[in-house]
Amino acid sequence: RKEVEQDPGPFNVPEGATVAFNCTYSNSASQSFFWYRQDCRKEPKLLMSVYSSGNEDGRFTAQLNRASQYISLLIRDSKLSDSATYLCVVNPDRGSTLGRLYFGRGTQLTVWP
Amino acid sequence: EAGVAQSPRYKIIEKRQSVAFWCNPISGHATLYWYQQILGQGPKLLIQFQNNGVVDDSQLPKDRFSAERLKGVDSTLKIQPAKLEDSAVYLCASSSPGRGYSYGYTFGSGTRLTVV
After folding, report:
1. Record: contact A98-B42, CB cut-off 8 A
2. A26-30, A77-81, B3-7: lowest mean pLDDT where?
């Protein structure tokens, strides 16, 4: 079983739409959770960390459900510039001393005018 | 702050040939990682160094892949001999303790390897 499972999409939405991505992780002891963004032929870049209480950064909202081992990302008022692949990422190590990251396969988003 | 430097950006080799990739992490970052990203998949950790010691190489195909980080700064990843399935982007990343190693990641722009 993969560490992180993610629907690859693709998601094609119009500008202004709200879109949600989900993923699940297999290791219940996982400690740190992230959403990364990867543009075509570029390296992954941190979009936001995900906390149990939920957190928001502008149009982006991330949620974590530890009981269900489920992570979500909500993008409101989509912009053309949001078109990218969104990677669900988990660090399985208690204390974060190792820093290993496990990536989902990514969900591709295209926002059209 | 300068980012993580990688070279070359692109490499095309024939199967059974050898290839090496180089990475220079952010200054002061003790932890360095090599990831492999096959087209359509997320990055997969190959090896993690803490200074010049290996922390985790459980997913490194050791029959053909090797990596070193002499002096705890630059690192090289080598494939010998290459197979068609090694075609991928090889990403180097470094991190600092800060609030935890997983929070302070910076990726390099990667080396795109094509094996023909």
Report:
1. no
2. A26-30
For the segment B61-80, the average pLDDT, to the nearest whole number, is: 95
Q: Which residues of A touch B91 (CB under 8 A)?
A: 43-44
What confidence tens digit (pLDDT) does each residue in B17-52 have? 999 999 999 998 889 999 999 999 999 999 999 888
- Cβ distance B91 to A101 less than 8 Å, yes or no, reads no
CA distance B68 to B54: 8
Q: pLDDT, tens digit, for every residue of A46-70?
A: 999 998 888 999 999 999 999 999 9
SS3 per-residue string spanning B8-75: CCEEEECCCCCEEEEEECCCCCCEEEEEEECCCCCCEEEEEEECCEEEECCCCCCCCEEEECHHHCCE
- CA distance to A4, A14, A15, A78, B37, per residue, from A27 (Å): 9, 35, 36, 32, 22
Euclidean distance between CA atoms B34 and B113, whole angstroms: 14
Contact B33 A99 (CB under 8 A): yes
